[in-house]
Amino acid sequence: MRYKAILFDMDGTLLPMNVDDFTKGYFKMLCKKMCPIADIDPELNVKGIWAGVKLMVLNDGSRKNVEAFWEGYEKVTGVKREVVEDICERFYGEEFLEAKVFTDENPFAVKAVELAHQKADKVVLATNPLFPLVAQKSRMSFVGLKEEDFDLVTAYEEERYAKPNPKYYVSILDRIGYKAEECLMIGNDVDEDMLPAMSVGLDTYLITDNMITGKEEYTGKQGSFKDLVEYLESL
Prior knowledge:
Layout: E1 5-8, H1 19-38, H2 42-57, H3 65-77, H4 81-93, H5 109-119, E2 122-125, H6 133-141, E3 152-153, H7 166-176, E4 183-187, H8 190-199, E5 203-207, E6 221-223, H9 225-234
Parallel strand pairs: 1-2, 1-4, 2-3, 4-5, 5-6
Helix pairs in contact: 1-4, 2-3, 5-9
């Protein structure tokens, strides 16, 4: 079949990684940048970040994720958004690039995205919108991709939902103007990528190289990233 749109997850899919190692590694880098400016203990800073992430995941669509994040961060740390937001933006465009050491290579990433453009009308980077756009761009650069390679990149400045909320996928469909059955979601997480996307009608492909949750719950298309490239070639 021909898909109208192909959606890619980032972490563990286009960008192979151990999420825990990546998060711990880059949090240390971020705290080194933020904590002297905010005059805050690194442990409390991390707690504030996680509080903000939690509110983004729970976002009901009434506000943008960026607003939810900073509410959670401010409530836990007592540090105002305006004190550290610009510092964070600069970090994600500069020092964050060094976090590539906490990820792995994917020699098939660029090829897969190129094929997706050949086989579909639109290609979306459906990465969980818990980061600002500058951070999304930095992470895609780790595997040789750039913002211009996608028709839509989800980030916390514009999105009002996050994975695993199915409304995250509905929001993408609304923005690209296609029906769910016309789209393919590619990801490595059964709970965040496959099941919620399927629940609103998207076709799915599970990447098994860096699979996070058990595939016994999932019976759809699946394979390694190399297998995915062959699948896209066959469309």
